[in-house]
Structure formats: structure tokens, C-alpha cells
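User: Predict the complex with NDP.
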Amino acid sequence: MTKHYQVVGNPIAQSKSPFIHMAFAQQTQQHISYQRACPEVDGFLVEAQRFFASGGLGMNVTAPFKLDAYNFASQLTPRATLAGAVNTLAVQEEGSILGDNTDGYGLVTDITQQLGWPLRDKKLLVLGAGGAVRGVLQMLLEQRPAQLVLANRTLVKAEALASVFAPIGPVETVEFDALSGFAHGHFDLIINATSASLAGDLPPVPETLIAPATYCYDMTYGAQPTVFLRWVASLGVRVSADGLGMLVGQAAESFRLWHGVMPEVKPVMAALRQHLKA
Ligand code: NDP
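Assistant: Here is the predicted structure with NDP placed in the model:
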């Protein structure tokens, strides 16, 4: 019997979730349908009620509905509670709806497993303090980095996140201007979690921070390297990655939650990379 899933966002036409989940389903021999839904920005509740009442078993949730999904869930995982945002809803055996957040899993497994780069004792700089950062801070802190600095245009948003995640580990917060106070190559890893790349912009990071050995990650992904990844390459950076692995990794964790089987990420990443270029 076919099991029904969907991804909800606005806009949603660009979402690669149907491609990824259908590829996972083929790999693990699950019979599923996976659709896109695009309610109005105030229409999440009605859409979620309609979908689950019609027998839907799981939903992925993207911008701008992750907080709506958090409020909709009847139970939350600890990581979704801490993030204050839900990207995965799953019907439980007794009929309640569990809300989870798999973004942190996607990012950290991409960096530590796919790219083979442990984060323990490393100095990390995260740029941005929006929804994506909320979803990943817990898992980044749980890797026990030597330092985690959060830089954001609007400092108060970074400070609010630092206080939410303080029980997990220390987060230092700075404005972009203050980054020039750090030495050349101070950070082992810089994660661009701003949405600047979507607009073709660079976050205002001083180039003195970037050394050839600085590992640079941009959560944004696309057919071409982002402007941030092109910029760090022009400064001699040797290792960098976009957020495609995070995207496929967070989807894999949602898939495991729904189907009880963890799919293989690497072949689906390769297929998606080809699909983006086509
Ligand atoms: P939000 O809208 O919640 O937050 C955007 C963040 O970017 C804010 O911190 C904002 O700063 C900052 N920002 C925007 N423009 C600029 C700029 N020109 N210079 C400096 N800072 C800027 O977005 P999300 O957190 O949800 O998403 C961030 C990015 O991560 C997006 O590109 C998204 O596509 C990507 N993403 C990728 C995922 C993946 O699986 N690969 C998963 C989730 C997100 P301020 O607070 O000052 O406004």
C-alpha cells in the first residue's frame, strides 16, 4: 500500500525534497508518494490538518512554516524543543504527531562523516542567527568544539540564541565588524548560515580571517558554487562545501524517523548534484 508524505513551504517549487525522498524510497524499497504543498503564509494549520486527516503519515516543513509546525506537533523531540522549530512531522502509532528537527543532524553528519572532518576541539565561526542556525547549534555544541563564535548583523538575535543554547555549551556572540579582531586563520571552520548567498551577496566577513587551511561551508547550495564559496576559493581556501550534503542528510534522518531505515546518502547526493546541473 502506498504511504503518503509531503513537503510544505512557501515558495516550494524549488524544493528538492521530492527528488531526495523518492530516491531513498527506491533504494530501500518503500512504496510512497511525496508531494509539494504551498499554502498561503497564514495557511499552515489548515493544510496540516487536511493532510493528516486524509491519511498522510509524514511531512517535511520548510520556510516560513517551521515555527507553525512546532506549534502544531502534539509531541516534540528534545532537539526540536531546544531549536524551537520543526522540519519533520511524523504520525505515531497511537495517532499523535511528533515534531522533530533534523537540520543539525544533516549539517554535522555532512561535515564529520561525508567530509571526514571531526569538530572536537576546533574553533568554529557561524555566520547568521536565523532559523537554520537554531536548528544546528545543539549538535555543533555537542561535538565539543574549542570555541563557537556566532556573528550576526542583528546582534540581539545572536545573543538570544546564545542564551537558549547555554546549557549545552558556550556561544560567543559578535557583530560582523568585531570579526576583524580575530587573527588571520584563527577559525578552523567558518559556516555561512546567512541567506546572503540566495541574493548573490557576501556576508561582511573580513578577508583577513580566511587562511588556505580554513574549512569553509555554505549552507546554501545550487547548480553553481555560491558567491561565498567562490570568494573563499579566490583567497586560496583548499577545502569547502555547499549545503547539499546537509540537505540530503537532514532528509535521510526524516526518512529514518518515518520508515525505520536509514538510507544511504552518498548516491543520492551524487544524483542530486547531477540533477541540479541538468
Ligand atoms: P533566516 O531568514 O531565518 O535567517 C537569515 C539570516 O541571514 C539572518 O541571520 C540574517 O541576518 C542573515 N542575513 C541575510 N542577508 C544577509 C546579508 N546580506 N549579510 C549578512 N547577513 C545576512 O534564514 P534561514 O536561517 O532559514 O536560512 C539561512 C540559509 O541557510 C538560507 O540560504 C537557506 O537556504 C539555507 N539553509 C540550508 C539548509 C540545507 O539543508 N542546506 C537548511 C536550512 C537553511 P539578520 O538577523 O541581521 O537579518
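The chain has two domains: 3-101+245-277, 118-238.
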